[in-house]
């Protein structure tokens, strides 16, 4: 097919138009709006970098950025550790490994909004019940403080995403040849040595993929945040995505919200590219 | 020979699986209780089996209508994404022009853009052209879903030899015939993957429909669930029955197609 053929453009046109209208035009327009005093209906003039400079003095935004960062780091580590452990568990020759895979993966089929509501019940009601049954005071009053809200979100995301990451690790673990492991076993390598020197280097590409997916899912989190804590108490568990949404649609500060959205895009893009670059480099060295 | 360390591992696995299921257990058990019973004890099974909560939740969620709305939007969007992404990926993979690789990388790069970064102007643009409705929503899903789908199709197409296309050209088939009758059927495994990934995403999506289709009677399950939950926050017996209802369809689907789903998700991520 050549680009001067009509058929080439007919094949390409629907998705190209959709991408331009849905992603590219809004992004470009968004960059433009972020430099104006746009209020959702009209823009009267350019304000230069005013929206951006205001943003760095906005405590609510900086708090949400810090909260999101903390949440992402803790979640990424936990999800990957749990996910890899589950993958190792279900690739051992267990009788129950099929059903276990099914169960661990299941939360991923359900929307974040609904999962957040379910866990809101668990943290506020069931934790209370377990706490008073066994006399554990720390299980009471969950989601009513910033730190229990934080750990609530971490637990919810770890429970949901570990099974997803497990599936990715399984795909790579099953590619590790049995002969290689048996040969090492015969040579006297113990379980940990086999893992450290054979399995671990061979599943390294899975880290690239898993890190990318967990980062993008945790840093951009919205649904679970909305339904589990709603950002409360007092906006202390509000993540960046929610802060942008509320700036725009609760406070109608459109141009300012859009400046936040552009900063958000830059952060996400830089981290993602950096991560892919570092991981690719490391893979080659290993 | 079974190794001795497998037995403790097996027990550990079963305990973990039970732990993973416990949120669902608590949800279902409490959805069958009265408000008073939940208040007294959340852990024990219900004293008597009544489905009153479900009847009320079913009616108030207008469940059949809401379910049909979700089905309509998901099926339409997924079919459109599959057809147009496969066609585009075909054109891109069969052209040697520089422009094709530029367009391909444009789609790949678009995957990096968070929804929140384009959300506000998107709603403004579509509001101006009066497309904040179901048609607009489906079109938006094509725009957001095309990138990953094209990426997956492109990878699969590169492994289909061009000689196949050329042979068909000699036989007098045009581009559309070649694509539909020869290439598209070969792409079936990747079509299943693309279909599964997009179905899970669109079926569960909340934010986009909440901005685009706010008219009464149009709500999808997540959207309706949000309003329902807001009304019954302090009435957990009803809220939990509603939540259980909301997840039943996807769990049934999972039950029948779990192999394909897990395989699809892992392929979609790994490639």
TrEMBL record, chain B:
<feature type="transmembrane region" description="Helical">
    <location>
        <begin position="7"/>
        <end position="28"/>
    </location>
</feature>
<feature type="transmembrane region" description="Helical">
    <location>
        <begin position="138"/>
        <end position="157"/>
    </location>
</feature>
<comment type="similarity">
    <text>Belongs to the binding-protein-dependent transport system permease family.</text>
</comment>
<feature type="transmembrane region" description="Helical">
    <location>
        <begin position="178"/>
        <end position="203"/>
    </location>
</feature>
<feature type="transmembrane region" description="Helical">
    <location>
        <begin position="71"/>
        <end position="92"/>
    </location>
</feature>
<keyword id="KW-1003">Cell membrane</keyword>
<keyword id="KW-0472">Membrane</keyword>
<protein>
    <submittedName>
        <fullName>Raffinose/stachyose/melibiose transport system permease protein</fullName>
    </submittedName>
</protein>
<dbReference type="InterPro" id="IPR035906">
    <property type="entry name" value="MetI-like_sf"/>
</dbReference>
<feature type="domain" description="ABC transmembrane type-1">
    <location>
        <begin position="67"/>
        <end position="257"/>
    </location>
</feature>
<keyword id="KW-0812">Transmembrane</keyword>
<feature type="transmembrane region" description="Helical">
    <location>
        <begin position="104"/>
        <end position="126"/>
    </location>
</feature>
<dbReference type="InterPro" id="IPR000515">
    <property type="entry name" value="MetI-like"/>
</dbReference>
<keyword id="KW-0813">Transport</keyword>
<feature type="transmembrane region" description="Helical">
    <location>
        <begin position="236"/>
        <end position="257"/>
    </location>
</feature>
<dbReference type="Pfam" id="PF00528">
    <property type="entry name" value="BPD_transp_1"/>
</dbReference>
<keyword id="KW-1133">Transmembrane helix</keyword>
